[in-house]
Amino acid sequence: MWSDALNAPRARDGKAPDVLHQGGWVEMREYRDTEEVDFVIVGTGAGGGTLAARLAEQGFSVVAMDAGGWFRPIEEFASDETAQEMIYWNDHRVTDGANPLTMGGNNSGKAIGGSTVHYAMVALRFRPEWFKSRTLLGYGADWPIDWREMWHWYAEAERQLSIAGPLSYPWGPKRGRYPFRAHELNGAAKLLAEGAQKTGIEWTETPLATLSAPYRDANGTSPPCVYRGFCRFGCSTNAKRSSLTVFIPRALAAGAEVRDLAMVGKIETGPDGRATGVHYHRDGEWRFQKAKNVIVAGYAVETPRLLLNSANDRFPDGLANSSGLVGKNLMTQSNSAVWGRMDTPVRSYKGPPSLAISEHWNYDDNNDFHGGYLWLGQGPMPIEWAGVLTGAKGLWGDALREEMRDYNHMVGVKMVGETLPNEANRVTLADDVDQYGLKVARITFSYGDNDKAMIDHALQQMRASIDAVDASDIFDQPDDNCHLGGTIRMGDDPTTSVVNADGRSWDIPNLWVCDGSLFPTVGGVNPSLTIYALALRMADRIGEMSKRGELYRCRM
Amino acid sequence: MAEKPSFPGYDTMARRDTQSWNEPTRQAIDARLSVPREPRFFTVEEWDCADALCQLIIPGVIDPPLVALLDAALHDGDGHGTRTQTVPYRREAWRQGVNALDSCARGSHGKPFAQLGKDDQSALLETIQRGEPTAGQWGAMEPQDFFKRCVLGDIPALFYSLPQAWNEIGFGGPASPRGYVRLELGHRDPWEAAEVGPDGDSDTVERKNRHVV
């Protein structure tokens, strides 16, 4: 039963769940709380899980913690929208601003594997110019990393995740072919392609982190995707390539300890101002894990929340916050859509929801707004579809029930749009406390004029694409948001950023961050591949720094 | 407007014991269908009000009644976790919300919401949905936001979590480990709902739908 995963920790007594084998367990190295490990990592998603594997594989002692449970997908994941809510971060939070963000399944995971347990697996690279958007495109802020370096780590992430994608990608500089062949297109993807062709823009098969052929390595096997849908509610076959199925097994094999149901509430600092470890709640009590380095990988809300909740006499405004930027520049990605009805049944619930993509507007600079967006094919499940109709049309009663009967005939495309950084959009602490007694995050967000102009443009373009396939009853779903970014900006200057290019705090040199909160700009693509790539790069950099003696009391 | 699709003879539950349903799915749906039909979160009065509200949002005979699923969800957890400036966390919002609805009904008609006629109930909901003033006591909660976030956010989600609803819309339903094979536009796997028209005439479709296992 999955609920067992939430009743008591599963990783203990020297063993951890082996999610690649039914009922399996693997040996797990364990560390005492008093043992000063090289790295304690907070969070096990695309940032934390990847780092746990790569740091342990280099010989560092690693303890990774996650507030969520350690689920066994092939035994415990239902094909059900409601039953799978347990993989989302649904703890209390406060949202405000002119456009309060929708939190949950689109952007917040709570499980070993983090949000990668529920992500839609869309694995995209940034457009190269976005890494210098301020200098080259005149908006946002420059990243402290060169795109050519990221290109190397993107390829590495794609290889390690066995991304299935097209032979040649239509946009951006040349890249090698994807490691696995692209998936077959479903009806919704075919219609996206037809709409693109008829309106004269390019489209392609979406690079996806789900297997298109069997995979085997030393840790186990995974089967190819069976196109059951429900990807965003957890993959029950392990075809999904996630932190849970790829990097956590590697971390365990390399000697990392991974603690489930371990909520970190505070990072402690010592007399010299360095981090000394983390206070965490597990098994009904607060404990303290000593560590030489602390890496926070809790994503754009929980990471700044932890740094702010760790305020002490020496750092009254929270840790790593001499710039005052911790929590600021919160970005989301706009997620508006256009829908229409086809005479032919589309049955878009089959297969991964986003099998086809157009990045056309990410690579066009002749618009009256900054930044870019893409759109993806869609495959809403029934509850999500009811939410579209109630949200966009305000339907209820017989009108809702009647219109729902067109479910199998509906087709839509949905944008992932860049929003611009703005210091007024931010994560702070609310006075409410959660079940651990910790102050919850207050998430303040309002769209700016540029964001709104982009959404208007996207709705118009998506409408043209849906119209081009002769859909009827076309309507807009203007209000939705998805992924997050910002809040712990990385940069070259300690006064205008929180951490450097390695995710290392300017103020506390043994405190690091590795997740989507690092992003100075979010671009118009889904963020997970960029987070994986940053984590792979960061692990490599830490190895180099260690060899040169540049880590605090920690040398390989 | 075209006639709405129909799927005569289609029953998602026929696949319960096939390769389209894994054990966790069976457990989840069994638990949902056998939810207690009595209040554990709401008081009896609140339950009656919420029941009337659920029947307005999704009319018709529904088993289990949606109010039972709503009560169970609020009994078991606090929903989607966020509050805004105008709508508190789910448990508090729902308790305040149904009491406010009752106070509106009492203010305008002198009796609780559940005892109003359907037309009066609908008129009140439309007033709230439009953001117009009501005769009720809403405290710090914004009625229109409560309606959008909780009433429309939660009640349809309860209905479309039921196999009965999946039959009505022709949804394939749970699909693991078998998944699907025919992804092409308009193509139907033999274990998917057949629709009158695209998949044959009424008799043909009904025969197909008897064999969606």
Automatic annotation (TrEMBL), chain A:
Keywords: FAD, Flavoprotein, Oxidoreductase. Residues 109-332 form the Glucose-methanol-choline oxidoreductase N-terminal domain. It comes from the Bacteria. GO terms for molecular function: flavin adenine dinucleotide binding; oxidoreductase activity, acting on CH-OH group of donors. Residues 421-535 form the Glucose-methanol-choline oxidoreductase C-terminal domain. Pfam families: GMC_oxred_C, GMC_oxred_N. The keyword rRNA-binding does not apply. Belongs to the GMC oxidoreductase family. This is GMC family oxidoreductase. It comes from Qipengyuania algicida.
